[in-house]
Amino acid sequence: MELRGCGTALVTPFGQDGSIDEAALRNLVAWQVESDIDFLVPCGTTGETPTLSHDEWLHVIDLTIEVAAGRVPIVAGATSNSTHDAVEKAKEVAARPGVNAILTASPYYNKPTQEGQYRHFRAIAEAVDKPLILYNVPGRTGANLEPATLARLAEVPNIAGVKEASGNMTQIAEVCSAVPEHFLVFSGDDAITLPVIALGGVGIISVASNEIPREMAEMTRAALNNDWDAARKLQRKYLPLMQANFIESNPLPVKAVLAMMGKIEEVYRLPLLPMRRDTRSKLQRIATDAGLITKPASPAAEVVDFYIYESWLAGPHKIVVHRSSCGQCNHGKGRPAGHEANHARWHGPYVTLAEARTTAQQMTGVLIRSECKCI
Q: 135 an active-site residue?
């Protein structure tokens, strides 16, 4: 297994009843593989894993393995803030033949010390025979995995790499300098994939590749092959989308875009809720500019012409000029209450107001000429 390039941190599609949408998940995985993604990561943070039951967690991983069918590596997420539970989850998922590696995050909420994190990850690594990718995301876990601790963990058998999502480029530079060359450093943020690769990283575990798998894979490969012009071109084009995916908590924006693309239903599990209207509108504009969805067609402007209403019921002839869009006119089909067809008629349509007015002035036998307030 060569684990490098772009891996997608898969969303977990849900149906309207809140259950896992198996058809949507299958289609999403198939599309990812067909788009030449390098590997897949089911049941990470983007997959709303904290809301999945134990059976659902395994089911999502199994479905991903089944559809991928060995065409790309599978890095299965298995995290807990209890070391004992994390070990058991890792052992369970490591028993899956289709799992190539395990992604496990720092214990969340507990805020362990550096030594506590070291022992936590070492315990997991010693319990399984599959490579471990550590996940440092202090913004979510409350615990930063420091470069010195990571250097110690890199010496533990089975610990093969790290997904670095601290967002701190200085720290990531220190990580790349502290670990052995064979140790895999993945960016955990789409927007800084290129600088992480420039420092010695081997790729990205991506949110944006849910939406643009081929483009993210091409950008990452270009950087790894030192084709920086091509990599920067793709980076510039899709940077607004990468940033917009975090305009609200992940995975709200990415699931919203996938729903706009018709890939999934936009359903979340509490405590996550649909995006606010203002941020959704901004996200839709960015997705449209990126070419992911078609710009909504502007409603065709209604053709407005003009009509003259002539009536002679119980008195002298009267005429009134109307716009065709006027409710009383209704394109020459309206009939005011009490007016009979044999005592009134419409003239027109006239293309311009000037034409209607000229015609009205030239009509003979008319005592009262007026214009509707719609004019």
A: yes
Please choose, from the candidates 274, 224, 369, the residue with its C-alpha nearest in 3D space to the C-alpha of residue 266.
274
* Structure confidence at residue 1 (pLDDT): 62
Q: What is the dihedral of CA 67, 69, 70, 71, to 10 degrees?
A: -70
Amino acid at 204: I
Q: Are strands 306-311 and 159-164 parallel, antiparallel or unpaired?
A: unpaired
- Count of residues in the chain: 375
**Alpha-helix residue ranges (DSSP H) falling in the chain:** 22-34, 54-68, 83-94, 114-127, 138-141, 147-153, 169-178, 193-198, 213-224, 228-244, 252-260, 277-289, 353-362
Predicted pLDDT of residue 337: 61
DSSP 71-106: SS-BEEE---SSHHHHHHHHHHHHTSTT--EEEEEP
Q: Is the Cα dihedral 356, 360, 362, 364 positive or negative?
A: positive
Query: 300-332: per-residue pLDDT in tens?
Result: 566 778 999 888 876 678 889 999 888 778 888
- Rounded distance between C-alpha atoms, residue 77 and residue 81, angstroms: 13
Q: How far apart are CA 70 and CA 109, in angstroms?
A: 36
Which of 89, 108, 118, 135 is catalytic? The answer is 135
Over the chain, what is the mean pLDDT?
92
- Which residue positions in the chain have pLDDT lower than 70? 1, 296-302, 314-315, 336-341
For residue 375, the model assigns a pLDDT of 84
Question: What is the structure's pLDDT at 332?
Answer: 81
Between CA 153 and CA 122 the distance in angstroms is 7
C-alpha distance from residue 352 to each of 296, 320, 356 (Å): 30, 15, 7
pTM, two decimals, is 0.78
Q: What are phi and psi of 264, to 5 degrees?
A: -145, 170
Give the side-chain half-sphere CA count within 13 A for 204: 32
Catalytic residue among 163, 238, 255, 307: 163
| Dist. CA 41–CA 45, nearest whole Å | 10
Active site residue 233: no
153 close to 159: Cβ distance less than 8 angstroms = yes
